[in-house]
Amino acid sequence: TGNLDGHTGAEIHDLILSLNHELGMTILVVTHNAQLAERMPRRVRMVEGTLTEVGHSPTQTPATPSPEAHP
After folding, report:
1. 19-63 confidence digits (pLDDT tens)
2. Alpha helices of the chain — where are they, by DSSP H?
3. Sign of torsion over alpha carbons 46, 50, 51, 52
4. CB-count burial class (<10 Å; 0-12, 13-18, 19+) for 69
């Protein structure tokens, strides 16, 4: 999403989180975007080939509310 405008990128990020939350899909996101990473329910960092857990938040919410959230 790095080549998209900010609004479209945010919509894609929300879609990814919706698929995870609403359908229980497991999604692996590899990114250098710290803001996107902070929105993920679980975060790990790889340094010199070693994975380290750096965050776990089971109740993350999308930055942009979905239309279904506000009938």
Report:
1. 989 998 888 999 888 888 888 888 999 899 999 998 776 554 444
2. 6-23, 34-39
3. negative
4. exposed
